[in-house]
Amino acid sequence: MQHPELRFRQVHLDFHTSESIAGIGMAFDPEDFADTLVRANVDSITCFARCHHGWLYYDSQLNPERRHPHLTTDLLRRQIEVCHDHDIRVPIYITVQWDHYTANQHPEWLAIDDQGKPFGTPPFEAGFYRRLCVNSPYRDFLKAHTQEVLESLPTDGLFFDIVGVLPCACQHCRAGMVAQGLDPAKLANRQLYAQHMIDEFKRDMTAFVRRFNADCTIFYNAGHVGTRDRATTDAYTHWELESLPSGGWGYLHFPIAQRYARTLGPDCLGMTGKFHTSWGDFHSFKNQAALEYECFRMLALGAKCSVGDQLPPSGAIEPHVYNLIGAVYGSVAQKEPWCRGARPLNDIAVLSPEEFAGADAGRLLQATMGIERMLDEGSHQFDIIDSMADFSAYKLLVLPDSIPVDAKLATRLEQYVAQDGAIIASFESGLTPAQDGFALTLLGVELAGEGPRDANGQLVRGRHFPSNDYTEYLRPGTAIGTGLPPTEHAMYMRGLEVHATGTTEVLADTIASFFDRTYQHFSSHRQTPSSGEVRGPAIVRNGQVIYFAQPIFSQYAQNAPRWCKQLFLNAVALLLPQPLLRHNGPSSVFASLLDQSSHKRWVAHLLHYIPERRGSDFDVIEEAIPLHDLEVSVRAPLGVQRVVTAPDGNELPFRVEGQRLIFTLPRLNGHQMIALEW
Ligand SMILES: [Zn+2]
What we know:
Layout: E1 9-14, H1 30-39, E2 44-50, H2 75-85, E3 91-95, H3 100-105, H4 138-152, E4 157-161, H5 171-179, H6 187-210, E5 217-220, E6 239-242, H7 245-249, H8 253-261, E7 268-273, H9 288-300, E8 304-310, H10 319-335, E9 343-344, E10 348-351, H11 354-357, H12 366-377, E11 382-385, E12 396-399, H13 407-418, E13 422-426, E14 445-449, E15 472-476, E16 489-491, E17 497-500, E18 505-513, E19 530-542, E20 545-548, H14 552-559, H15 562-575, E21 581-583, E22 590-596, E23 601-607, E24 627-635, E25 642-646, E26 651-652, E27 654-657, E28 660-668, E29 671-677
Parallel strand pairs: 1-2, 1-8, 2-3, 3-4, 4-5, 6-7, 7-8, 10-11, 10-12, 12-13, 13-20
Antiparallel strand pairs: 9-22, 14-17, 15-16, 15-18, 18-19, 19-20, 21-24, 22-23, 23-29, 24-28, 25-26, 25-29, 27-28
Helix pairs in contact: 1-2, 5-6, 9-10, 12-14, 14-15
Zinc ion (ZN) binds at residues 111, 133, 135, 168, 170, 172-173.
């Protein structure tokens, strides 16, 4: 599969339009449409062939019954033609699993749950969210429809939407499972089959598309790109990361997904929305500072930009929306020369818990969120990887909280450390998949016991209890305790009980409370105070390997104890004394470093925007907060001649101390790139 470089300034123009609205496309003015996009610096716009209502927005010979009943013009064709006249690409949108018309016409094609009911919207609720099963004859319809699009419309790309995995129990999926010797009555089998079936669908559809078009872009959207997508990378030309921070994804989703997606090879596109909330929020406007942050953070993480909008039913593009998008995309256009072909530089790789526990938009794992925050706040440069990645590109691997290690992964990790790699692992990471002991002996610990269980017989370790019932305490030694008072610190989530082995150095002790909090015995409002008695090691070091017994990353995602972050960043500093980038600004600075060797420069990105919870629903950003006299230190390549802000071109004085190049940025107002040129 070819992996084309994507355009930087894209719009995803939603157009799910009810049959109860008349005059569809009546006010579409091709020149006004294109002029508005050109003025807003848009260079690619995804337009609609078929929407979630099931309607078509072009003149179809194949399915005239599906043409929107009030469509007044051959809208999609005219959108494509005028955009092409202005060198704007037009990938074409085709819905897959959500299609209201097809769900009503062909209920026998719906995905069915274990109660025999269709997944999604019940009959007396608004919404088109029932799911069609692509294991049914629906796939034949979808192919014929796609073929008509490819043969009758100039097709730059195809965006297949809603291609998710769900444990379908329809007759076709049940028969498929039986044929493979799987018992369809078991949920785990339905999930396994569903993943393989959707993977097979993507490969099948891509091969089908290629019979008609050799080079259009192809993407299958499920609202998240993650470890489950690696297996079908060849079915995609690129990754498109739908992630509307105000629309259910939150501000942590995009960096987590992007740090993984960018390791797979194809080019990446971040996708946010212009909406105040989420898709379909007409006549609402995202704060400009928020849109800046979202787009500039895409650039900083090595992605291109896409902003979601929805075209009003009349087809008249909304100029005020494009004033907003244009204000940001004008700046993106100026910044592009420092972003094109730039590869993120990294010290650290985080093994993703998602590979073992699954994840989705709105269902990110706590350990992943915790480590994303800690490393971001420490301005470390890192990827998120899976167990199949090449470890040798990184100086430090982190196994956060819950990475099971089988014999094969243990061997790879041991080889990595033997070749000067360093590891930080926490909590249950390093245990065998059966959790009966440590597979990774170089952590320097062995399992001492399973720890307490609650009144229901469930293990309490790693769980959040609102009254901190099973809290223990951590007392750091001097090496790991830099920046913390030399005393006990509450660890609200119970850790793993371990012994140190051999010559392992104990960096911090776990101190027990007098007793765990239950109805039989409790003290005060929250956890029981410290007994002062050492229960076992909390943090140990074995050469280039540091192990934390407590789930510090999940804990940080839950309620952000600064001491958990400080202990982790201290451990990173012990193993990685010369990180790629440091600065003296606050932890709210987002910093990245990219290599643009083709231009003989590295490019640092610094951002300072602070999401705040001003409404109870989601975080917003209303303005950038300028910072002054930010000192930045980079472990830079030899021979840097010039440090210069981009794109504005102000040369900054710098000095070299050992491996590090140090300069001061007089003012950071939102986003600033700084080029280190040689
Ligand atoms: Zn099915």
